Amino acid sequence: MSSEALLETHGLQGGYGRKHVVYDVSLAVRRAEIVALLGHNGAGKTTTIKTIFGMLPSLGGRVVFDGEDATVAGCRRNVMRGMTMVPSERFTFPGLTVRENLLLGATHERGATVREARYARVAALFPVLAERPAQRAETLSGGQQRMLSFGIALMSGPRLLLLDEPSLGLAPALVTALFDAIAVLANEEGLGVLLLEQNVGQALRIAHRVAVMRSGRVILEESAGAMRARRAYWELF
């Protein structure tokens, strides 16, 4: 096990009930590193991160987070230790304001100064949210709700982000802004990021390393630079 790794999986298996979807996934994410997990729909990417996060039970293998076995830790324990996940759905509390939504993300943080510092950081990353603190989430545009769900996750003070299709349903300009924010979080704040994405171009623009999944297994790992240098990569999927 690498001492540099923030997250490691070893032969991870997962699925739904008795149905296996993920058969053997071993990967690592280091601090300040963005790892893109690529593959067609149905390859097992979402099942993988849900199993890592504790939303689904592991059916085999191990998850190690910051040197501690997290295979059966559960979502709450993982969040408390610095892991968070942003699902592909727009996860917000529709009847609450933007500010109320964001502060809910820091519920476990008792220090008001820390909560406000995190709020200021999210506002700096997403100015469109800073302009609408009293607006109800249900009245935001789809792209704004996506940013809000991302902001809620950041309010927990994570060290590891698990991101499931962050570009889904967003206009190109918003996709670029969101991916720029992800790169800033990794480069300036040292967050580790495991990024699931169908927008291969955007993923490769900010990723450091790439893992490709097919049929529930990782079939290739290489640097993002090596992947970008390929003349074609769709045959891998």
Our measurement of the CA-to-CA distance between the termini, rounded to an integer number of angstroms, reads 28 Å
The main sheet comes to: 6 strands, mixed
CATH architectural designation of the largest domain:
3-Layer(aba) Sandwich
Q: Give the overall silhouette.
A: globular
Helix content: 25-40%
Write down the overall mean pLDDT: 93
CATH topology-level name of the largest domain: Rossmann fold
Radius of gyration: 17 Å
What's the gist of this structure?
It contains nine helices and ten strands.
Describe the fold and architecture.
The chain is α/β, with parallel strands linked by helices. Helices cover 36% and strands 27% of the residues. The protein is built from 9 helices and 10 strands. Helix 3 (98-104) runs parallel beside helix 6 (142-154). The longest helix is centred in the C-terminal third of the chain and has 18 residues, at 172-189. It is globular. The two termini are 28 Å apart.
